[in-house]
């Protein structure tokens, strides 16, 4: 099994470069319209949080070479189901489709999660994902 070498803390990228790379990935994964809404809703109280998630979640973690975006989406969907983060789960179902997962693969992720995160969590995930997946299948 190969592993991604860890990035040293001083990997040569500035905070500005991490932010720019994070914003690019964030837009590619979540869509311009989603990110534009999030940015438009930024307040002085949430500005630091928006900067944090753009630089760290998207610019540091989502840009790592160890997993492709499909695999990252599977991990995120599983985590959102297990933790009951319904709004984030719906957003990441859309993102998973953008990252190349098929509706049938997303169903498999939810089924797998039923065993490890619980049937009630998977039941909620199916309820939330159904309209998104139905719409995606209509475009196939």
TrEMBL record:
State the Gene3D superfamilies in the record: AhpD-like (1.20.1290.10)
Its domain of life reads: Bacteria
The scientific name of the source species is Microcella alkalica
Gene Ontology molecular-function annotations: 3-oxoadipate enol-lactonase activity; 4-carboxymuconolactone decarboxylase activity; peroxiredoxin activity
Enzyme Commission designation: 3.1.1.24, 4.1.1.44
Residues annotated as region Disordered?
A: 1-21
In Swiss-Prot or TrEMBL terms, this protein is called 3-oxoadipate enol-lactonase/4-carboxymuconolactone decarboxylase
Pfam families for the chain: CMD (PF02627)
Against PANTHER family, the record matches this protein to: 4-CARBOXYMUCONOLACTONE DECARBOXYLASE FAMILY PROTEIN (PTHR33570), CARBOXYMUCONOLACTONE DECARBOXYLASE-LIKE DOMAIN-CONTAINING PROTEIN (PTHR33570:SF2)
Write down the InterPro entries for this protein, in alphabetical order.
4CMD/NDH-1_regulator (IPR052512), AhpD-like (IPR029032), CMD-like (IPR003779), Decarb_PcaC (IPR012788)
Q: Which UniProt keywords apply?
A: Hydrolase, Lyase
Q: Where is the composition biased (Basic and acidic residues)?
A: 10-21
Q: Which residues form the Carboxymuconolactone decarboxylase-like domain?
A: 48-130
């Amino acid at each position: 099994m190969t592993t991604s070498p860890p990035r040293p803390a001083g990997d040569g990228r500035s905070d500005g470069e991490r932010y720019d790379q994070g914003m690019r990935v964030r837009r590619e994964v979540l869509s311009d319209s989603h990110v534009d809404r999030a940015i438009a809703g930024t307040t002085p109280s949430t500005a630091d949080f928006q900067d944090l998630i753009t630089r760290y979640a998207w610019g540091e973690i989502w840009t790592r070479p160890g997993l492709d975006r499909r695999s990252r989406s599977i991990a995120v969907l599983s985590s959102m189901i297990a933790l009951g983060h319904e709004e984030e789960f719906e957003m990441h179902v859309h993102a998973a489709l953008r990252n190349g997962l098929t509706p049938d693969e997303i169903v498999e992720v939810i089924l797998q999660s039923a065993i490890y995160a619980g049937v009630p969590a998977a039941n909620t995930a199916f309820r939330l994902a159904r309209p998104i997946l139905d719409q995606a299948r209509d475009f196939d």
